[in-house]
Amino acid sequence: MFSNALLIAAAIAQLPILLMYSRVMWNKGHYQFFPLLFCAVAWLLYDRLSKHKKNTKGNWLAVGLLLLNLLFVFLSIAVYTPVSVIPTLIIFLSAVVLDRYGFSGFWLALPVIAILLFVTKLPTGRDLFVINELQFLASQLASWILDSFSIIHFREGVILVTEKNQFFTEEACSGIRSLFSTLAAVGIYGLSRKYSASRQIFNLFQSIVWVIAGNAIRVASVVYLADHGFEQFSQGTLHEMFGLVTFIGIFGVTLSVDRVIDIFSRGSKRSAYGESYSESAYGDVAYSDIVQSKKSDPEVESTEIPAENPKPKFLNVALIGLYVVLILFSTRLTYAKWNNFDRVRLDISELEPISESQLPSAIGQWKLSKFETQERGDESLFAPESYIWYYERGNLAATVSFDAPYPEFHDLAFCYRGIGWDADLNHSYTDGSEDGMSWLEMQKPDQYGVVYFAGYTNDGKLARPANEFSPATRFYRNIELATGQLAIPNGDVNRNGEALPISQIQILVQSASPITEEETAEIGSLFNMVRKQILSSPRFSK
After folding, report:
1. pLDDT tens, 44-57?
2. Residue 414 domain flag
């Protein structure tokens, strides 16, 4: 068995990455239930293992898992990503259970440990993709509901416009929060009831259906209520409470369907409540029955893998030493990252304003027709602050926008998809170059569009998309921070070491006919001239 000292050192080594993970996830509404999930997993593990016979011999598979955990902890800290934190924790818990309770205890605990996957952060921006798709789905279904009640409106992407108001189906209304939290709640409920695997899977799938339906009804209800004098339901406390009621309703409907199925399955040999029959409501053998049969069948018992000899003491000491080094490494790096990790935004008043004269009245054949500024709330699909110049040339109109503040490179593809465009994102960045850019090739019914954009830091340097930073670049920078070779930032940079705030320059050109390659090249040239002018503004003179 692992020594207590080793398990304590290993547990402490998990804390810095869990601390980092907690701060990131608490800023994301659809993951904010994770503390309750951790408590539920701890309770279920205690319930399943407290009376289980402990393993008195060592297990070399547990040693392998602990070594794998060491590697994952190191990589999670070195690359500093929350994506691998939950898999790392799962490996650690599996190693501990396997060492202390053997294979029989491990199989009992595995479904409970696996429930942690519900709070695993999706990689490579998949969170935003899911949010975006759910926003579209909720908006479309809500529009159909409003049509069925003859409420006059039209939909543009995730925006519903009525005769009186305009409603944006924001992230909170998309269903992402109730989706993740409902899946976790249904999973916990099924584990506490000792449901079979097939019943668990069915309940998870049916809950997705109710999440989609429930949030579509919620969006339609908010539009209807706000349009009939109850604007308080569209924002603020009542809006949040309405979301909570929606979640409770979705969970209640899911359990109601589960109970109806249980009623119809009374004639089967085993009910869903784990009564002492041989089959489950779906004909599956529950794992608790397998464990019981192993205890009563000496032949089954004899097929278990024999216990290994106790591990030598030097292995425990070596692993303790590795974990202590890792604790020192990760503690220093977490301290260095804490002040600037996931900084959301800066106050607009901290930024130097931009004047209309920053861009000329004519750029080549493009003539300035209008200038305006816009300040938006945090719930807006677009930037908190924008300076907008409108240029025209022949049959083309170009919208030049300077947007801020952002905590990192902002992917405009999500914004334009949110208002109904099909947008293909492209990047052009090279190492050491400050003239990189991103662009969108867009289309929607009877309209075509091109967007060029690039972000710049507070000191005028090009801000790159996260995927343009190689893992090696992040790795070496974090190693330098952890070992003291790089000074600890004072809170005015983001996770990529870029000076905050990030300001973004973009040009949008729309046309009723396809935009030719020649016109696209001209738009790119216009973008280069525009950003050269804007980068000379007082905002970047510091």
Report:
1. 999 999 888 887 77
2. yes
412 and 399 within one domain: yes
Q: Which amino acid is at 168?
A: F
Is pTM beyond 0.85? Reply is no
User: Per the domain annotation, does 276 fall within a domain?
Assistant: no
Closest CA to 515 of 414, 415, 440, 429: 440
Give me the chain's average pLDDT, please: 80
Task: Report pLDDT digits (tens) over 217-234.
Answer: 988 888 888 888 777 777
pLDDT for the residue numbered 173: 67
Are residues 106 and 97 in contact, defined by beta-carbon separation less than 8 angstroms?
A: yes
Element at 369 (helix H, strand E): strand 366-375
Judge whether 288 lies within some domain: no
For the chain, how many residues are written?
542
Domains identified in the chain, total number: 3
- What's the rounded Cα separation, in Å, for the pair 398 and 198? 56
Q: Which residues of 451-467 are buried (b: 16+ CB within 10 A; e: fewer)?
A: bbbbbbbbebebbbbee
**Which one-letter DSSP state was computed for residue 58?**
B
CA distance 85 to 73: 8
Instruction: At 165, list the tokens.
Output: 């108001």
Per DSSP, the three-state class of 515 is: coil
Closest to 533 (Cα-Cα) out of 410, 366, 383, 417: 366
Domain that holds residue 328: 4-121+308-338
Query: Which residues are CB-contacts of 83 (< 8 A; sequence separation ≥ 6)?
Result: 120, 121, 122, 123
